[in-house]
Write a structure and sequence with these properties.
By secondary structure, the protein is mainly α. Helix content is about 70%, strand content about 0%.
């Protein structure tokens, strides 16, 4: 049975802009950097502890050295925390920018899809509703005016077709 090797994607060269990297890559790099710093600090602590346990001791000023080690570890922890906060902040800004672009693209795709299916948009429906309301008001105004006029006035305004006189044809005139 053949085995397939999977290739891991590598991070882009340091010279490339951070914006070309995905959010996952940025977070992975931040996590890896934090883990490396932690490993360095742990190795140094382990070295110091082994030295004490082996009986070599740290000399007369063991307490001072341990405090210095603790201070260095605390400084590294703060430094890593600031770096992570900075990277997460820039990542959040990038996500906001890209989500706005994605939102516009989705809105445009939906608009084109509705247009292709000949389905009116909310804006078109609102325009039509406004026009229907205006026509309804006009009709109500006209019907209320005709209802207020007396019946005689309503019938008087209706024009009757003109009465046409009979035309004489040549045969009728001869006869």
């Amino acid at each position: 049975m053949a085995t397939h090797k999977t290739k891991r994607k590598t991070a882009p060269a340091p010279g490339k802009a951070a914006e070309s990297r995905s959010a996952g890559v940025v977070l992975r790099e931040t996590w890896d950097a934090a883990m490396k710093q932690l490993a360095v600090a742990e190795a140094e602590l382990e070295k110091q502890v082994r030295s004490v346990l082996d009986g070599k001791g740290l000399g007369g000023d063991t307490g001072r050295q341990l405090r210095e080690l603790g201070n260095r570890l605390e400084r590294q922890r703060r430094k890593l925390a600031r770096e992570i906060e900075t990277r997460v902040g820039s990542l959040q800004e990038r996500v906001k920018k890209e989500s706005a672009g994605v939102s516009r693209m989705v809105d445009e795709a939906v608009r084109r899809g509705l247009a292709a299916l000949n389905i009116p948009s909310r804006h078109e429906i609102a325009d039509l509703t406004r026009k229907v309301d205006a026509l309804t008001r006009k009709i109500d105004g006209v019907s209320s005016r005709t209802a207020r006029r007396p019946l005689a006035a309503r019938t008087a305004t209706v024009s009757k077709p003109p009465v046409r006189s009979a035309r004489r044809t040549k045969t009728a005139a001869r006869g």
